[in-house]
Amino acid sequence: MSDRQSQLVGSNQVPNANVSSFRRYAAQNPPDSSNAQDSWENRERPDPRLSQGSLFPQGNSVALEGSRSSLVQDFHGFHDSARTHPVNSGTNFSTTGRPFPGGQVTPTPNQTHLGQYTGTQARVTPPNVSSEPITTYNSPSSQVNLPYISRLRLSNAQYSGAQLCSGDTVPKPKTGNLVGSDAQSQYTAEAKTGVLQRPGLIPRPGIPQTSYPAASQPGVALATDTQQLPRPDLSSFGIALRVREGDISENYLASLNNAVNTRNQTGSQNLTSSAESTVNAAVNNFLPVACSEEVFKPVHPSFMRISVGMFPNAPTLRSRFPLPVGAIVQPLAEPPVGEQSIPVVNFGKAGIIRCRRCRAYINYLSMFVDGGRKFRCNFCGFLSDVPSDYYCPLDNSGRRLDANERPELTCGSVDFVAPSEYMVRPPMPPTYLFVIDVSASSVSCGALNCFISSIRQSLDFLLGEDRTRIGIITFDSTVHFYGLKSSSENLNGKLDPIMAVVSDVDDVFLPIPHGCLVKLQECRESLEILLDRLENMFAISKDGGGAVGPAVSAGFLLLQSCGGRLVLMTSSRPTLGVGALSKSALEGGERSSPNIVGTDKERQYLEPDNTFYKKTAVNMSRAQISCDILLCSGSNIHSELATLTPLAKYTGGEILYLSRFEASKDYIVLIRSLRRMVSRETAWEGVMRIRCTRSVKCHGFLGRFFMRSTDLLTLPNTDSDKTYGVEFVLEDNDIRTEAFAAQCAVLYTASGGERRVRIHTIAIPVTRNMADLFCYADIGSMTNLIMRTCADAVLNKNFETVRKEVTESLVQALVKYQQGGSQLQSQYSAVSNLNSQLVLPQPLRLLPLCIQGILKSPLLSREASIAASMLLDDKSFLHSLVDIFSVALSSAYVYPNIVPLFPLDEESNANQVGMSLPGGPLSVKLPEGLRASAAHVLHSHRVVLIDEGISLWIWFGSSVKPSFVQELVAETSEEIASVFGTTGSISPQYIARAFLCTVKPGYTSSASRARAVVQSILACRLSWTPVRVVFQGDPLEARILSLMVEDRTVNQPSYTEFLSSIQRQVQSRLTSS
To answer: Residues in domain Zinc finger Sec23/Sec24-type (predicted)?
Structure first.
């Protein structure tokens, strides 16, 4: 055995201990009942600091197993106050043999606590038990948490004589936070359940591994296992990080170590991430970068994340890995708070520097040779000449002398100014065409007034400044065009707009040749006159409407020469003219039946009723026109959103669907959404391509775009909220380079009129080891890709088939990982009963929970409670949302972020390590999170916020103190009176609106703090995200219960039961193989 192996393998010979000694010791040293903090009542709620697996930092292999010992009863109640002492991390520890008669001892939830010891190999001898050591710990480096039977009072006096392999003496214990290289182990941990057992197989030194309780074994009480099951980090810091970035494995969490360092110093931190991510920084360890390592700034995970931190080197290895290998790309994401904006580079006369063969853009991995006259492409290896205007000599290390001053050589994300050869035509000005439904259905539900009001309030936020152009089209059963006038064109001072009506909805044409699209700056007065008159012109309309298709065709005719954004604002179904629904769709039947949701018939009705809108969308995409859809549907009216969806899907547009529309509660969502749509960073006239290392190609693009060729995506419009997915496929040849690189390039026109290329370049190591694919995976992007794949699959397969496929991928992953581990028994320490445990590496410890969240989500669930609350349009809207899901949204959707709003323990929250969540009205530290189980969340005295990514739910218990509601109403009554008036009952809609009222700085009340928390989380969500209030006992409470992912439902198992089922399948496969 090598020296390195000997450091990793623990002692396999541990003598038996005398149980009666423990009993005598316990009788002579009763627990200190005065410590109320250690009582069972106070420990009933699980410690969120342990739920994310912080007991198992890097380098550890831990097997947690359920209770199988008859000795459990002998130790009930024998607990003591937890103590923490320093111990090295990277530890590989084990217990073997029969330390106690009757098998291994599994302490009950109050019988284990954290011990920390410093030393290379500490041998700990409990007092009054045996002179021989019970457990041997090999601790190569850093610090780690180790669970112990708490009754062993491990004070300095009791273990000061413990022998150390290094000859050192164990230092005096101290209590405090663990400080390790892993940011997720920054907690004062306290083990509540679990048993120290022989370690599982370590697939790779330095990579932690988690074993789930083997719940299928006889004598295991599942109820006691739930507290130790892997969950997201529910601390204040963890919740804030999850809201903003989603689930992040350790390799990506390292990118936030600047924030972590700040937290250690100040106790609070912002979501800054100027430090390098491990996935990118690892490049420095195996491949030189073009600049100095200290100035290198890799791609932030907000822009681009790969589902694996090491890439398979061969097709055979990839084929054996059952999980997705791909990337989530959000090219125009807003820079993280505290980060500088993406640098802009203008190469001037030299032009953009690119590889002459594969056309990849120069980046931080490009190496310069021949004295700086050539550079080698890191994608294809080709040597290209350096233009004379870009030439710079090299230093002694082979780097350009100016490398550290050039953003393209120091940053993973950069904008290049595109010269004229990157333009087919001059950049067009930002153009907005609003197509408004003025039919009776739009008027009756109040949507028309909301449409007009939202446009009026968004005029000041339109992009493009003095270049912005705008136009208005309205429709009912006919199509209406409006010519707007500028003050300079009308000498008599009359700015009344001109109206022209086209009644032939089967052959729409432009009746006004000029004046329908005008400069906003010149014609604003005429536009506002038109908006004022529209409310009165159609106030008493009885026109049934339905000319949606003709209105869209009219908008296409108006924009086809210049491109731009067509914003369709409607409440009607397409029933007239081109694009009208088929007779069967108009008659309703099953297509409009609420009972169709959740059945296998659902998928046929999620397809468009006709092909008109897809064909129109393709033509729009070619003309650089995007189409946004704002659909406000009346109560229980089927609006055929599935038929309209292609307009946005193939043009990169936005979709907002407000079912059961009520002006009083939904107008604020409509205004907020439209303002965000027109003001966020936007790329016009765009195309996107992702290049990869030779032998790898992109496959299965996911998102809203039109595929112009096999790898070129047309994006007439994309923005900071749009996210895309892609899978990587290895071709026949193996990868022969040390690193896999992917480069996302978006050629677009900025709102200011400048043509640019947005570049994101990311690189990860290449591996030939299956274990590396598991141990360096990113759970957030992995879950996002799985969810996107399921959303596409369910449109072509029945529910059960898709559910079985996603479950099978999880089972295969566990089987492959454990089979790979068994091959390492000769090299690393092994577990004799490995097949009886559910083992996953630490980065994927949340994978079973995420898979269960997908299975229980409305996307795949067949629960009656979910189906009853959804219309077919709701389901279609959900599928469209998955197309743009960021990692943060998908993480919250599979496992909601739950925080209490009232009451809050002010003292505990004051001491809680947290992260200030930016983006809201104020910087607020979030409370500790709650696990998604009704028993832990829905207490009658609480007000709880449940963030599922696409909705914020606020649940009020029946016994909430009236003072909280009184504070909430008193503080917001003036601001909210304009909507609900000064009198009336306090309805859920009233309370929801109150939570959105302005929070004044220096707030002290509980209601103000609750509103600050809600608005801070809402600021990290999509602009239209609704806030819904549910009182205990309301019918909508069934929807709240469906969000409790860990609980059992009518058709779905609980989290523990799901793990047990998966474990049985894995054990069966391992046994048969």
So the answer is: 352-390
